[in-house]
Amino acid sequence: MKSDMERVVLITDFGVNDLYVGQLKGVLCGASMEIQIIDFFHDIPPFNIESAAWLISRCQHYFPPKSHWICVVDPGVGTPREALLVKLGERVFIGPDNGILGWALSQEDAQVHRIGTHWKPASATFHGRDLFAPVLVDWLNYRDLNRIGPAIQVAQCQPMPALLIKKPHGAQVKITHIDRFGNVVTALKYIDICWASAALVVNGISITKWVKTFADLRVGEVGMLVGGFGTVEIVANKAHAASMLSCKCGDWVDFLEKSVDAKNGD
């Protein structure tokens, strides 16, 4: 496969057991050059803009320079919310202006264009297929931002959703992803914490045990480690931590000094 091939990366909440992803890909086949379509992730929890925005921010650097993103978690589809194309060097990010493009918008070299009103999607409820995919095909075929719509300032756009709220003795932090193993991924970065006294409280249960690997825990034991995203994860050895703690993606958890009031989970 050619290293300079154009790639299209898809992240949506469409799921993989429906027909929406296939239709979106069909439109992308209208590009005049050969492209590789990468299904990054289609199982974002429905309507969870924060999870999608965070995953983009943590994973975009694993893709080659000419990787163009279509980002669709869009509960406001068909409303007056704007649609954007954000150009960063050789790549573009396309999606609704609802915070999902927050990482791209935060980059110093971001060129932002509002997708113009001359683009008239056939459906008010499926802008992935009828707006974002056609806009990307047009960009790939013509490389002309003026065809997309007017340039606007980053300040006019929705920023990255807030995923961490600092408190006097800790913080509240969002659960941004739960994988199929039940690992509870948070937005809390390694550099943001004080290891000596750190704890996470989930539904009244205080998790205080820090480990380096899953195998450092007893089978079924819950603890914390720094995972592959470089952020704090609540995990269990050969068990589903999210089910054990009755938590889900999008929940807030408390990061604080070791709690004496909450039930200890280590």
TrEMBL record:
<dbReference type="InterPro" id="IPR023227">
    <property type="entry name" value="SAM_OH_AdoTrfase_C_sf"/>
</dbReference>
<dbReference type="InterPro" id="IPR002747">
    <property type="entry name" value="SAM_OH_AdoTrfase"/>
</dbReference>
<feature type="domain" description="S-adenosyl-l-methionine hydroxide adenosyltransferase N-terminal">
    <location>
        <begin position="8"/>
        <end position="149"/>
    </location>
</feature>
<dbReference type="InterPro" id="IPR046470">
    <property type="entry name" value="SAM_HAT_C"/>
</dbReference>
<keyword id="KW-0949">S-adenosyl-L-methionine</keyword>
<feature type="domain" description="S-adenosyl-l-methionine hydroxide adenosyltransferase C-terminal">
    <location>
        <begin position="174"/>
        <end position="253"/>
    </location>
</feature>
<comment type="similarity">
    <text>Belongs to the SAM hydrolase / SAM-dependent halogenase family.</text>
</comment>
<protein>
    <recommendedName>
        <fullName>SAM-dependent chlorinase/fluorinase</fullName>
    </recommendedName>
</protein>
<dbReference type="Pfam" id="PF01887">
    <property type="entry name" value="SAM_HAT_N"/>
</dbReference>
<dbReference type="InterPro" id="IPR023228">
    <property type="entry name" value="SAM_OH_AdoTrfase_N_sf"/>
</dbReference>
<dbReference type="InterPro" id="IPR046469">
    <property type="entry name" value="SAM_HAT_N"/>
</dbReference>
<dbReference type="Pfam" id="PF20257">
    <property type="entry name" value="SAM_HAT_C"/>
</dbReference>
